[in-house]
Amino acid sequence: MNFFFKLLGAGVSLGAGFLGTKLVNKGWEKATGRKPPTGHDDVETSLRSALTFALVSAFVSTLIQVLTSRGTQRAIARFAKSQDII
After folding, report:
1. How remote is the C-alpha of 11 from its chain's centroid?
2. How many CA atoms within 13 Å lie on the side-chain side of 78?
3. Mind listing the pLDDT tens digit for each residue in 12-60?
4. Alpha carbons 36 and 34: distance in angstroms, whole number
5. Cα separation of 84 and 81, whole Å?
6. On the CB side of 50, how many CA atoms lie within 13 Å of its CA?
7. 82 versus 25: which is more confidently predicted?
8. What is the per-residue pLDDT for 85?
9. Distance between CA atoms of 80 and 4, rounded to whole angstroms?
10. Is the dihedral of CA 30, 17, 73, 82 positive or negative?
11. The 3-state secondary structure of the chain, one letter per residue
């Protein structure tokens, strides 16, 4: 069962990371009016803009990683506690 929780945690983390990336990109477009500097296209961006985007993306990514890890650990602990009761 522990393997199942690890697999579920990885899936939730990947899904949350994908959603976080989409949110950061949409937020960047709303805030600046330009596409995010992801390196996929030939958008001319300043170094300041690219660094700001990188910092915001890293912050959101780290936050998502920590929150999903904690949530998964809580779910495992709750499941283990309920198994002890039964």
Report:
1. 12
2. 7
3. 888 888 998 999 999 999 999 988 887 766 567 788 888 999 999 999 9
4. 6
5. 5
6. 9
7. 25
8. 64
9. 13
10. positive
11. CHHHHHHHHHHHHHHHHHHHHHHHHHHHHHHHCCCCCCCCCCCCCCHHHHHHHHHHHHHHHHHHHHHHHHHHHHHHHHHHHHHHHC
Tokens encoding 2: 């522990």
Residue type (1 letter), 81: K
Q: Quote the tokens at residue 34.
A: 């330009």
Alpha-carbon separation of residue 80 from 9, 33, 45, 49, 74 (angstroms): 15, 48, 50, 47, 10
Q: Is 76 exposed, middle or buried (0-12, 13-18, 19+ CB in 10 A)?
A: middle
